[in-house]
Amino acid sequence: MTLSKSLIWFRRDLRLADNAALFEACTHADMVYGVFVFDSTILAQLPSDDARLGFIHHAVNELKQALQARGGDLLVLHGDPATLIPAQAHALGCQSVYANRDYEPYARSRDAQVASQLAQLGSTLVLCKDQVIVECDELLTGQNKPYTVFTPYMRAWRKRFHAGLVQPYPDTGKACWGKPDAAISPMPMLDELGFGPSSITPAANPGRDAGLDLLTRFTRKLPHYHTLRDFPGEPGVSGLSVHLRFGTVSVREAVALAISQENEGASCWLNELIWREFYQQLLWHFPHAATESFKPAYQSLQFPGERSWFEAWCEGRTGYPIVDAAMCQLNQTGYMHNRLRMIVASFLVKDLLIDWRWGEAYFAAKLMDFDLAANNGGWQWAASTGCDAQPYFRIFNPVSQSEKFDPEGKFIRRYLPQLAALDNKQIHAPWLAKQLPLGFILGETYPEPIVDHAVQRERALALFGKQD
Questions:
Q1: In this structure, what CATH number is given to the domain that contains residue 268?
Q2: Domain count, the chain
Q3: pLDDT digits (tens, 9 = 90+) for 213-236
Q4: Are 278 and 322 in the same domain?
Q5: Could you tell me the pTM of the whole model?
Q6: DSSP H stretches of helix in 222-263
């Protein structure tokens, strides 16, 4: 009797536990092989010191060791998955390849190529729902159209939800794991992939155990999440975004935690997880939003901001402490607190009058937790160009935002030590201080503001108002 064989292709799901595609592969095949591909198409776009490669490399190596402990192994390849996956499936005699669905335009195009190549070889690609609770056409309006406003989407999501949707997929420990020739499955070193050490010190540790530890610790903070989440100087958020991004923690585990407590903090965090799915599904239904404004009225908007302003924003030297501290956090750790993401995005678009796509691209290059759907959705929200975005006339005042969400300047002092001697009022707007500490020279110790917020606010209103 011929054994049925399948290949499980790990992508954004770097774990064995609670993995939909892995469960399906083990359920429908007598023998399962595992594979991960360092996608050369993606890697070619990254700088050689990209810190995300270290996180991924650690998680993949951990996954490889876990499969070896179960009697199998993980094929770790480097190249174009559109050719490598069909070739490996054919070489191993696999009738099917299982993977978890990805909603980004590139991933969809890549998966279509893989499916086509597999079909020519007499095999199939089976895609499973894993990184979201609700996907694609599972949640539509009464007119059978995708939701484009968050609040009704959130209500429909909650109404559709039931506890069975977060039941973890059973462990596949008894699966019959195939073990490919050791000669073709070594774990490549980072330098073999073209990457070296990074100057970034990531805020989150890599790997499944680190993700689960964060999840456990957040359980105690969850009741207070709604009151602490907006204060970057406080440890009020989960820190799980990078683990959800690469799948070292499953979305079902996160949502299960959110529904395990009946309090305002848990409900607030669940809404944030629903926002994540809202943006995933928007990108699925409206892939054009990946490169252009969702709202047609703003697709031809010309931003008059200066390149030197953008460079100052990137480097954290705009003269607005909360903005500069946030950018220093990003540049040093590959992470930025969500409230700060809104503040710096609003500042770039509405104060500096820079195209939101410039900021989106910078975040894409720097964020450890970069996710196209969430990054694009967040930037278009702040820029007022996206669906269900803030209205164009809502413009964050960076000083009042700083005073409200970092009242004692704890966060600012952490990332801008040159401002440590300023008092809790001066630190939000040094240029407005009647007297600065001895030796503190505005323009030398710390930059003067590169723009006047009040002036730029009027310019932004005029710019966006023309298109409205």
A1: 1.25.40.80
A2: 3
A3: 999 999 999 999 999 999 999 999
A4: no
A5: 0.95
A6: 225-228, 241-246, 251-260
In whole angstroms, what is the distance from residue 266 CA to residue 337 CA? 18
Say if residues 153 and 16 touch (Cβ distance below 8 Å). Answer: no
What is the spatial distance between Cα 340 and Cα 208, in angstroms, rounded to a whole number?
27
175 in any annotated domain:
no
| φ, ψ of residue 196 in degrees (nearest 5) | -130, -165
Q: Collapsing DSSP states into helix, strand and coil, what is residue 364?
A: helix
DSSP assignment letter at 434: S
Query: Tens digit of pLDDT for each residue in 70-102?
Result: 989 999 999 999 999 999 999 999 999 999 999
Under 8 Å between Cβ of 128 and 99: yes
445: number of Cβ within 10 Å: 15
Q: Beta strands 5-10 and 74-79: pairing type?
A: unpaired
Structure tokens of 325?
A: 């501290």
| Residue 39 in tokens | 């996608």
Q: Which of 262, 285, 308 is the last residue of a domain?
A: 285
Bridge partner list, 79: 39
| 22 pLDDT higher than 70 | yes
Give the Cα separation of 49 and 51 in Å (integer).
6
Q: Residue 353: name the closest of 259, 278, 459, 275 by CA.
A: 459
Range of the domain at 226: 131-166+208-285
- Please report, for residues 124, 186, 315, 335, the alpha-carbon distance to residue 321 in angstroms, rounded to integers and kept in the order given: 54, 47, 12, 17
